[in-house]
Design a protein that fits this description.
The chain has 190 residues and is α+β, with helices and mostly antiparallel strands. It has one domain: 60s Ribosomal Protein L30, Chain: A, CATH 3.30.1330. It contains 4 helices and 7 strands, in the order αββββαβαββα. Strands 1-2-7-5-6 form a 5-stranded mixed sheet, with helices on one face. The protein has a two-stranded antiparallel sheet with strand order 3-4. Strand 5, helix 3 and strand 6 form a beta-alpha-beta unit. The longest helix has 17 residues. The chain is globular.
């Protein structure tokens, strides 16, 4: 994609970051909504440096990142999460017109832009849970992503994919018993 094509794409007034009330499993939460053009995929993210010794981001990836971060920053919203330790949840919908797309290949660019904008969160390591869904829409005007950002503590516990602390302890015990049953030791560093 050329710089002009990217500029044309980002000149659409629709791209934004806004505070939003989000309802999930009948539970209302305060979060953020992002609407951005489809980022470059992970497959388009890296290239070798001129000397062939380092892996660097491609110019297309860097241009998209800069423009997306600028769109988010221009919203003028305060930082959604300034606490580096606060766990966040992201629900992303990738709308595409090509059935061969892999929706999870677009997450890293989106998270990097959020961090670079300095108006969403401090570090993308705060994202502790995520769900990404692909939507094939051949009639869509163009390909884009919708992203909902929530605080993990606000998530309703009735969600099918929610794993409680009690369930995690149960899995920990199950793994330990499985290792002990065969006379093995569990090595946490592996």
């Amino acid at each position: 994609m050329t710089s002009l094509q990217l500029d044309d794409l980002f000149n659409n007034y629709a791209w934004r970051q806004v505070d939003s009330n989000i309802t999930m499993s009948g539970h209302k939460m305060q979060g953020r909504l992002f609407l951005l053009p489809l980022p470059p995929s992970d497959n388009e993210r890296h290239q070798l440096s001129r000397n062939g010794r380092r892996i660097i981001n491609t110019p297309v990836y860097n241009r998209w990142l800069k423009r997306a971060a600028s769109v988010m920053h221009k919203g003028g919203l305060p930082l959604f999460s300034s606490d580096k330790a606060e766990p966040l949840f992201i629900y992303t919908v990738v709308v595409y017109r090509n059935a061969l797309r892999d929706p999870t290949n677009y997450e890293k660019a989106l998270y990097d832009a959020m961090q670079q904008s300095e108006s969403v969160f401090v570090n993308d390591r705060q994202i502790k849970e995520r769900h990404t869904k692909g939507e094939l829409r051949k009639a869509a005007p163009l390909e884009y992503v919708i992203c909902y950002l929530l605080r993990q503590k606000d998530l309703p516990e009735v969600m099918d994919f929610y794993v409680s602390e009690e369930q995690l302890r149960g899995y920990d015990d199950f793994i330990l018993r499985g290792a002990q049953a065969h006379g093995n030791k569990v090595h946490p560093q592996l």
